[in-house]
Amino acid sequence: MKRKPRSPWEIFNIAFSLGTSVLAALLVGIFLGYYLDKIFHSSPVFLLAGIALGIWVGFRDIFRILR
Amino acid sequence: MEEIGPKVIFKIGDFKITNTFISLQVISILVLIISFWLSYRPQEEIVSKRQSLVEALIEIFQRYLGGFLGEEKSVKYFPFFSSLFLFILLSNWSGLIPGFASPTSDLNVTIGLALGTILYIQYIAVKEKGKKYLKNFISPSPLFLPINILEQITRPISLALRLFGNITGEHIVLAIISLLAPLIVPIPIMVLSMFMGFIQALIFTTLSAAYLAAVFEE
């Protein structure tokens, strides 16, 4: 499906929101990993996995909004 | 220097009444009053200036939403997004009135707004797509389930943090500049703050509409 070209306002808004999308995903990943590590005494396995997952989710979210 | 953030004014039992809570109530009433003032019986002919203004504004906003949701859906969900926009816009701007605290500079308010919006979108998704929507969580493969769930958790957090961070940041900058140079200098910053308040309200609404659009596209 061909989309209509985006208006400058839309592009401006999306550009403004990209940073926090990655940040929020990263924060959720880090907190989740940190607490799982605390529970299972497996530092830093879950923390690293959480960071990787957070980055992935953040960029995937951006990609979905831009699509 | 005054402390930044919500201040407890008085307590009712264990329930703390903060200045942001009071301004939140005032703005809610204001949004209701403005909505009543703007509402009118639809007529074919434009008979008053108010009607022509309201119709122009509604059309601009509807066209903007239509860019994400398509024409039919943008008309259907227009009331939700327009009230969300109006509420956030007035909340952001209210911080510029002396003695008034912007409700969106309180993290509790922004988290509440973001959670409410995302839950409403989930509700629409389940209502409109039924069981098909739940299949999205395991697409393209069941291995993606944790990522899809994490994405859903991330959305309200990013919406809440963005609005809170930007509005609080503006207030801090304005407070510091007013402290250093109280005359004239803060005025351009205030204008910028109004512009940013508008942009933040638009971003919140735009992203909510984009999340809803993603539900329909999947």
The greatest interface here is: A-B, 28 and 21 residues
Helix content of chain B: over 70%
Spell the H/E element sequence of chain B.
Answer: EEHHHHHHHH
Biggest β-sheet of chain B: count, sense, barrel? 2 strands, antiparallel
- The biggest beta sheet of chain A, please? none
Number of helical regions of chain B: 8
Query: SS-based structural class of chain A?
Result: mainly alpha
Global shape of chain B? globular
Uncertain runs of chain B are none
State which percent range the strand residues of chain A make up.
under 5%
Structural class of chain B: mainly alpha
Give me the Rg of chain B, rounded.
20 Å
Number of helices of chain A: 2
Average residue pLDDT of chain B: 87
Q: Can you tell me the number of structural domains of chain B?
A: 1
Question: For the terminal residues of chain A, how far apart are their CA atoms?
Answer: 11 Å
Q: Gist?
A:
The complex is a heterodimer of chains A (67) and B (218). Chain A is an all-alpha fold.
Question: Could you explain how this protein is built, in words?
Answer:
The complex is a heterodimer of chains A (about 70) and B (about 220). With about 70 residues, chain A is mostly helical. Chain A has one domain. Chain A has two helices and no strands. In chain A, α1 runs antiparallel to α2. The longest helix of chain A has about 35 residues, at about 10-40. Chain A is rod-shaped. With about 220 residues, chain B is mainly alpha-helical. Chain B has one domain (about 10-215). Chain B has helices at about 20-40, 50-70, 70-75, 80-95, 105-130, 130-135, 145-180, 185-215, and strands spanning about 10, 15-20. Chains A and B meet through α1 and α2 of A and α7 and α8 of B.
